[in-house]
Amino acid sequence: MIDYLAGVLLIIGAFFTLVAAVGVVRLPDLYTRMHAASKTGTVGSGVMLLAIAFHSGEFDVVTRAIAGIVFFLLTAPLAAHLLARAAYCTGVRPWPGTAPDELAGHYEQSPAQPRLTSASE
Amino acid sequence: MTPEAFLDLAIRVSLGLVCLAFFVAFVRLVRGPTLADRVLALDMLVTVGIGFIAVITVSTGYGQYLDVAIGLGLVGFLATVAFSRYILARGPRPEQRYVTPRPDQAETGVRLEGEPK
């Protein structure tokens, strides 16, 4: 029974990983690609680690698998945010079909140190 | 179908899907016009590698491989952060203005500041 569950979870996780990779290739600009990679890829990895936890059943392996899932859930948004902010500050434009650019005019496009300027300036 | 046979089949199918995902993400690593795109593809490859290690862990039954997966995730996260700091410090590049054209727009590609849209 556990073997069935672990196998199904492995296939689901691998499928999510494949969908994330296809999204990274097919979507039009960096920000939509990041949306695919960060969320879907994390779910894929997490479900596969869950498959390890169910298949093993030993206490230490289950604990490490859960810790790994929590770690990935914590770090993926951080990495995505940092990369998106760096790309936006250095002038990577969103796809023209993107709905209003909320950050337009808030970042100085200075070569040295882009910083968030207040809206009143 | 016995549970063992189903798990064996699931491991083979998952390995196939993960290999395919690896090659697909590599396409973006080669093509993707800006450095940030390539960093994102590298992050995706790390994610796929974690999945790969997970399949091998279930296949062999050695729980120690799980530590390798967590270590790889940590290294990939730190690499992404370091690359982001580097992109920020490097400043704007003209080729980074690349914009994918909308289907209803005739002009493509590079649009510098001050150019009419």
Automatic annotation (TrEMBL), chain A:
Residues 110-121 have a biased composition (Polar residues). Pfam families: PhaG_MnhG_YufB. Residues 100-121 are annotated as: Disordered. Keywords: Membrane, Transmembrane, Transmembrane helix. GO terms for molecular function: sodium:proton antiporter activity. The chain crosses the membrane at residues 6-25, 37-55, 61-84. Coiled coil: none annotated. This is Multisubunit sodium/proton antiporter MrpG subunit. It comes from Dichotomicrobium thermohalophilum.
Automatic annotation (TrEMBL), chain B:
GO terms for cellular component: plasma membrane. It is a multi-pass membrane protein. InterPro entries: MrpF/PhaF-like. It comes from Dichotomicrobium thermohalophilum. Residues 97-117 are annotated as: Disordered. The keyword Transport applies. Keywords: Cell membrane, Membrane, Transmembrane, Transmembrane helix, Transport. It is found in: Cell membrane. GO terms for molecular function: sodium:proton antiporter activity. The keyword Transport applies. Belongs to the CPA3 antiporters (TC 2.A.63) subunit F family. Its main location: membrane. This is Multicomponent Na+:H+ antiporter subunit F.
